[in-house]
Amino acid sequence: MKLSRLLFIPIMALLVTSCSTVRVSTDYDTKKDFSKYKTFAFYKTGIDKAPINDLDKKRILRAVEAELLAKGMTKSSAPDVLISLFTKSRERININDNRFGGFWYPWYYGPNPVTVSQHTEGTLFIDLLDADSKELVWQGVGTGALTMRNVEQREERIREFVNKIMAKYPPGSHKQ
Question: Which of 79, 132, 143, 167 has the fewest CB atoms within 10 Å, counting from its CB?
């Protein structure tokens, strides 16, 4: 009985930390020279279609702007690239069987070793479009749990998503 309780704590810690990570993937046009992109602006047409509230849109846009400025790009009314975004979310249910070895122990009379947890998983798409052609040239996608209980946690989680996605821009600037 004590062994199962000792195993419960590390298993739950692993589950909680695995939910906090942001999984990132990117795709881009290999024929484009990303070094020529020095200025940016937000693509209102695309951003207006994103199915999230205006407060979260502002948070995402501020975080994207901060990341691009840190990379040496400048915000401009005549930009080289346009930034658009899209989001989606879904409810995830995790069922964990915490019995040691997955076997049923008829002599164990402790609490139910099966736990069920639910969280929202969100996906943020950040698109960079060539300003002249309006063609997608780079896309970063981040997916992770959205477990924000207050404004500060919400802002921090959004910054984390954007930071991890934009760390992959421009292509070739990061280590694989």
Answer: 132
Check: CB of residue 169 under 8 Å from CB of residue 162. no
Find the length of the chain. Answer: 176
For the record, the structure tokens of 121 come out as 């998983």
Sign for the pseudo-dihedral over CA of 148, 153, 155, 156: negative
Task: Give residue-wise pLDDT tens across range 56-94.
Answer: 999 999 999 999 999 999 999 999 999 999 998 777 777
Query: What phi, psi does 42 have (nearest 5°)?
Result: -90, 140
What's the predicted TM-score (pTM) here?
Answer: 0.74
Do you find a cis peptide bond into 113, omega within 30 degrees of 0?
no
pLDDT digits (tens, 9 = 90+) for 133-159: 999 999 999 999 876 678 898 899 999
